[in-house]
Amino acid sequence: xxxxxxxxVGADVTMKCGSMDWDAAxxxxxxxxxxxESHLNGSYLILxxxxxxxxxxxxCYEGSSWxxxxxxxxxxxxxxxxxxxxxxxxxxxxxxxCSWHLPTPTYIPNFFNISxxxxxxxxxxxxxxLPKNRCHIxxxxxxxxxxxxxxxxxxxxxxxxSTTLTFDEFAIVKPDPPENVVxxxxxxNPRRLEVSWQNPSSWPDPESFPLKFxxxxxxxxxxxxxxxxxxxxxxxxxxxxxxxxEYIIQVAAKDNDIGTWSDWSVAVHATPWTEExxxxxxxxxxxxxTSTSTSSxxxxxxxxxxxxxAVVGSGAVAxxxxxxxxxxxxxxxFI
Amino acid sequence: MAAADxxxxxxxxxxxxSRGIRLAGKMRSDVVDLLDTxxxxxxxxxxxxxxxxxxxxxxxVERWDEQTGTQRLLENLAAYRTFRALLAQMLEEQQEQLGxxxxxxGRALASVLLQVSAFTYHLEELLQLxxxxxxxxxxxxxxxxxxxGLFERKLRGLGVLRELAQWAVRSARDLRQLAKPxxxxxxxxxxxxxx
Lengths: 335, 195
Prior knowledge:
The structure holds 2 protein chains of 2 kinds. By secondary structure, chain A is mostly beta strands. Chain A has helices spanning 282-294, 314-334, and strands at 2-8, 13-15, 26-30, 33-34, 40-41, 44-47, 56-62, 68-77, 84-88, 95-101, 111-118, 121-123, 126-127, 134-138, 141-142, 148-156, 159-167, 179-186, 189-198, 211-219, 226-230, 235-238, 247-255, 268-270.
């Protein structure tokens, strides 16, 4: 005779050895180990304040013959707490889905039953194969003021619990984030970044149900985001980027008229275009090195012999080099 | 070939649709604000459940995506003509309650009534363009029974405004469907237009 016995964590459990009398001589074993006699009351096995670790197979053997008289699978768990239920339409106007989970595990099998009522009409929520704990409903009516009432009941061997959500058609509309966000520098524009993205593929009809977008961006070195709301189009040019700084950019979407904003898209990084550093000749490299070493002598501010940034051609570089030598000579005199 | 100063029917339709969409958007936003004002003025609970009110056009529709352009326009027109009469009734009741006093609620009601009238006219233009003609203006607005108490009338007003807010959203969607160039629609683009 094999049984499964579900008991609550913390309960006191008494197991009888099948039909054996109380005063029969028996041996109890659990998971291959003899159970100490201190846990026995006659032939009854007493487990006080059971914990999860006491789940397992329990066997009872008749004392002399070692015939197995009783076998049970003890499963220790908890009754379900109030489940967490969420409903959302990411594919408006086709329908919506509801998904649920338990806030804490019960350690024993749970069964979920969901009912959806719209006014007086009972609707069928079709279970999804994956993910589990999710079902979807096709809208029969649109633009209704009548609320939907979704009740989820969870039952296991130790108890049951339920939760109810009431909402209207518009309130649960929340698109998925925009897809394929791309950010690129704009050639010859050190303060611009071109951002483009696509409507989420789950949104079935962006032409009749257009989305609006929210773009946020910031340089990695700062915490403050800049925000831009865009009522149409799937691209935008940032024109106030800090030159040379790497940016992080994200986009969110919302139906133009109803519902709430999507989560932020996957973040993309981009750095605005910067001018390529000039490639100097060997003579110029030596000249530059010399000028740099004399700069520690700090020529007076008015004596702007050469501006490094203004060095363009080899002629100007030669002038700088000469001036540097003169300054070096003065420097030596005053050491 | 169309005269230079008169746009082709297809372009006119698209133009009317986009203006109508903007009108519907503004109307919805103002109705939502009016709802807040109404609830506050009438001392109602914003989440109060209101049963379907007799004579108020219900925005809820089945198989919305299967409707033809003409169906959409006719249903919208019938609805907004009724709302025009209902809002006028509400404004009158409001004035009866508070006399000639200029109230925020009165002004908001009047503004929405104006927008509903404008939108109705817009729909009539669109229907004319569809060459369907405009149905005769017979609106059957049930006069609230005199035994309706003040509270019941307030709830009725709440129902009217809530349904109008839904209609404003539906109308924008309807006009976007209408604006789509579709060979199967009741009004396909003319030969001199590209979709």
